[in-house]
Every structure is written in C-alpha cells, then in structure tokens.
Amino acid sequence: MVIYAIRTTRGREKLIMETLYSKLETNEDSDVYALFHPPSLRGYIFIEARDKDAIRTVTSHVPNIRGMLNEEVTIESLEHYFAKKEEKIVFRQGDLVEIIRGPFKKEKAKIKTVNEAKEEAKIELINSVVPIPITIKLNQLKQLETQSD
Q1: Which domain, by its residues, includes 113?
Q2: Alpha helices, DSSP H only, in 30-132?
Q3: Measured between alpha carbons, how far is 9 from 56 in angstroms, rounded to an integer?
Q4: What pTM does this model have?
Q5: Residue 90 maps to a domain
Q6: Residues 55 and 102 both lie in one domain
Q7: How confident is the model over 21-39, as pLDDT tens digits?
Q8: What are phi and psi of 108, to 5 degrees?
Q9: Among 1-5, 6-10, 21-25, 142-146, which range has the highest average pLDDT?
Q10: Backbone conformation region of residue 56, classed left if phi is above 0, alpha if psi is from -120 to 50, else beta
Q11: What stretches of 60-136 show up as alpha helix (H) in DSSP?
C-alpha cells in the first residue's frame, strides 16, 4: 500500500473528493483504499492505494486534478492532520469577555454564571445603560481577563 499526494486546483478539493468517491463506488474492484483531504492544506488530496497505477487509473479524466507528486507520502508525515488539538478555555464567574459572534459582536461583558453542561454562560454587557442578562454559548466568547480566586 502506498500513499501519494495529488495536486488539485485550490478550492476544488471537496468537489474532486466527491467525484473520486462516486467513481470508486461504481468500480467495486478498485485498488484504492482511502481518500483524505486536510482542510488546512489547500490544493492537495491524499490517496492510499495498492500501487501508483491504481491511483493514476482512478484520477484519469477527473477535472481540476493537476498531477501527482512523484514521492510516496509516509503515514507519519500525515499524522499531525489527524491529531485533534483541543484547547479548553475555562470561563468563571466574574471573568471579563468579548463577544465574537452574534448581534452583540465586539461588546464587552462580565460573566454572571456558567453552565458547563450546556456550554452556555449568562453575561451582562458592560457598556449598557440597563444591565440585561443574556445567555450565550461559550464558543461565542473570547476571554479578556480572568477573575483570580
């Protein structure tokens, strides 16, 4: 089994993946085992197959494919695309945050309560005349200052 990188037109990777997938569905005896496109790497898709000829066969007559790189790609060089790096930010009562999405975008607020199970926080806008409690998802907040214990 070998993995090769296929050069594509930038921004057309998803379309090419769908075309190749449908081509492979109709050809049951294909020697292609996997297709992979990391979203952070534009202009390339990776194909795992029995040999280089199997890849050439499946990619022939597919629009927006610009060619195949001559070197094999090792699975070790692709591992960092599979590893999910999750950075957990902990919000606490009293933290100063900025809203990064929604109708209150770029507004600063103070967290009143946090519901970790629902991933929501109840906040109050700092620059508002009347303090109105707003419930908002945590992924819509950017932490500016933390409340030290």
Answers
A1: 96-145
A2: 52-59, 75-82
A3: 17
A4: 0.57
A5: no
A6: no
A7: 999 998 878 899 999 999 8
A8: -95, 145
A9: 6-10
A10: alpha
A11: 75-82
